[in-house]
Design brief:
Mean pLDDT: 86
Shape: globular
Helix content: 25-40%
Number of domains: 3
Length: about 350
């Protein structure tokens, strides 16, 4: 009897050992299979990356290069993969043809659409359908890979250009500027000099005119100026600061490119040369209504941003007559009633970065 029990125990142990070996082999095979699948996927991923970067489809290469090379601190992403010769070739194939024409201020008739009740399109209705006392109207936007906002400003006389309270030493968050000036709406304006890539927004890059006086830049240097005159008409000028002031410009920044001048859109080659990113633009309709456009970007899963071509299309839909690109990327931000509405992509608690100046509606 004891012998039978012993034999049974031995057989049971032998079975468990055999079973364990089988399970172990199965686990090894399963692990090996998973490993093979991961390797295949990595190889496919690597192949896909190489194909997109160096393959016959130029779209991806152009997108990567133009996006990286228009940032302040991520140019290395393009230079790590491509030669300077390739980068230069792509940049020279994707650009906005410079518009030499200046704004014809007589074309703008402020208030001319106040009594319109029949709309030419759904976009026109979004702008014009409002309460008589509304100072502004915010319109959410969503497109292929991007989210953002368009704000219609019905009284352009309420728009002014303000500078950081620490101008020359440090920039200021748009949210703080808006609260300080009790602004209803605000967007970023100038680019800024990024000495040693500190990124503190201390000074505007190029010309900066405030109250008819040159705050920054050479007043005799020709530049692309974006600003308002005393009649609250948005002026886009290829001129010196002194010439612009002489022609009535009181607030202005230097930036670009000009996207629409006197109703005519710019000719855009390729993706426009600015890649995909966050965007800020300013425009004015023929009826005087000013448009602030802010597109969020650089945030996978939420909004990657858009290119100059798409920005121009959006503004044309809303009947912009004159329009220009402002500083984008991590500087792009929109504030409504003292609160940040957009989602900027800078490294800070709010996502904002310090900027030298802003367009505010007060």
């Amino acid at each position: 009897m004891k012998q039978e029990v012993k034999q049974t125990v031995l057989e049971s142990e032998s079975f468990e050992i055999s079973k364990g070996k089988i399970q172990s082999k199965r686990k090894k095979k399963k692990g090996l299979l998973i490993g093979v699948i991961i390797c295949i996927l990595l190889d496919l991923g690597a192949f896909l990356c190489i194909f997109l970067a160096y393959g016959p489809i130029s779209y991806f290469r152009d997108l990567l290069i133009t996006t990286a090379m228009t940032t302040k601190s991520h140019k290395y992403l393009a230079r790590t993969i491509y030669s300077e010769k390739t980068i230069e070739k792509v940049i020279h194939s994707n650009y906005v043809v410079d518009i030499k024409e200046n704004t014809n201020v007589d074309d703008i008739q402020i208030g001319s659409s106040n009594e319109i009740t029949e709309y030419e399109s759904i976009y026109d209705e979004q702008i014009l359908k409002r309460n008589p006392d509304d100072l502004y109207k915010m319109i959410p936007l969503e497109g292929d890979g991007y989210k953002g906002y368009l704000v219609a400003i019905y009284d352009p006389s309420r728009i002014s250009l303000v500078s950081s309270r620490y101008y020359g030493n440090w920039g200021q968050y748009l949210e703080d500027m808006a609260k300080q000036h009790k602004a209803k709406v605000g967007i970023n304006a100038s680019g800024f000099d990024d000495t040693n890539e500190v990124g503190n927004g201390a000074k505007a890059s190029g010309i900066f005119i405030k109250g008819g006086k040159v705050i920054e830049g050479n007043p005799n240097a020709r530049a692309k100026l974006i600003g308002f005159n005393q009649e609250h008409v948005l002026m886009l000028m290829n001129a010196t600061a002194n010439e612009a002031i002489h022609q009535g410009m009181i607030d202005a920044v230097e930036f670009g490119p000009f996207l629409i001048v006197n109703g005519k859109p710019a000719e855009i080659k390729g993706n426009g040369g600015w890649g995909i990113s966050s965007r800020t633009a300013i425009a004015q309709r023929k009826d005087g209504i000013v448009l602030f456009l802010v597109i969020d970007g650089r945030q996978p899963g939420y909004s990657m941003g858009t290119n100059i071509r798409e920005v121009t299309k959006i503004l044309l839909r809303y009947k912009a007559y004159n329009a220009a690109n402002l500083d984008g990327g991590a500087s792009s931000s929109l504030n409504i009633e003292g609160k940040l509405v957009s989602k900027p992509c800078a490294v800070s608690p709010t996502g904002e970065r310090p900027i030298p100046n802003a367009w505010l509606v007060k």
